[in-house]
Amino acid sequence: MIKKKFTYKKSGVDIDSADNFVKFISKISSKKKGKKKFSNIGGFGSITDLPKNIKNPKIVACTDGVGTKIEIANELNKYDSIGIDLVAMSVNDLIVQGAKPLLFLDYISINKINLLKLKSIIKGIVKGCEISGCELVGGETAEMPGTYEKGKFDIAGFAVGIVDQNKLLNKKKIKKNDLILAIPSSGLHSNGFSLVRYVIKKNKINIRRNNFLKNELLKPTKIYVKEILNLINKDLINGCANITGGGIPDNIKRVIPDNLIAEINLNLIKPTKIFKWLKNNNIDDKEMLRTFNCGVGFCLIINPQNLSKIKKYFSKEFQPYVIGKISKGKNKVRLNDKIHWS
Length: 342
Description:
Phosphoribosyl-aminoimidazole Synthetase, Chain A, domain 2, globular, alpha+beta, CATH 3.30.1330.10, 342 residues, six-stranded mixed β-sheet, single chain
């Protein structure tokens, strides 16, 4: 009796499919304007030139994922936007310190390679990189049967940026009487989806049949790179914060000096329809503020004299507006009044 040979493919890992996917990534990532000195995809490591016009370059690095938003993508069988989310979650952190995104890498772990699904995700990543002005230089795709259930996967992103030491945004630039501006979010971005899914489950909502939720839940995270870098180059901002997990209070306090306090007037915040819907599903104000961006995707801290100049750099949809100011204090953040949800 001849025994059948054991193979990696029989164990659930298909190297040929993985190789075909790498070829696809290499092909679409090379379709960009400008000259490329190196072909990075498929090698052991990536090589990237440092910009020559920066006198005292500092490297800034970030990593993040999209959380359980991927479960919504699975439910709706729609994967073309979560790649944009993945890039946004890292590059929006880079610009908080004034860094220009330079390169991006992804990590995708999945039960079994599904080329249609993975190609859709990668197309979103490439689009996110184009919006951010950075290059997708590599990544890793891991087929992990037994670790992930059928159809399940996770993604992570890694971004590297560069900034001249003189352009670094730090706490020292923030002064008393500076204004705090809110830049609108494009929606939920990629935070709070475990609570969103819990609300959906408890209310027995079929999101595939709910046009409002179907349109809202997978809206890609707004990438603020272009606008913020323009403001930094013009020396128009003293500080900024990416509003992600922990919401407005937890993220603002990360950039406030110890002797100052950010006074936020919650009644000035403009929550959009998706946040009003969540609020109406028995979530209290404190939980809303700690879990979601509540319509504020990014915050700027500026000299009041620069307000009118700053607004010119944003489209109508993402016009910044004042929600508070910097005062003397020790608790870093003070929340005044309440959000008007109606």
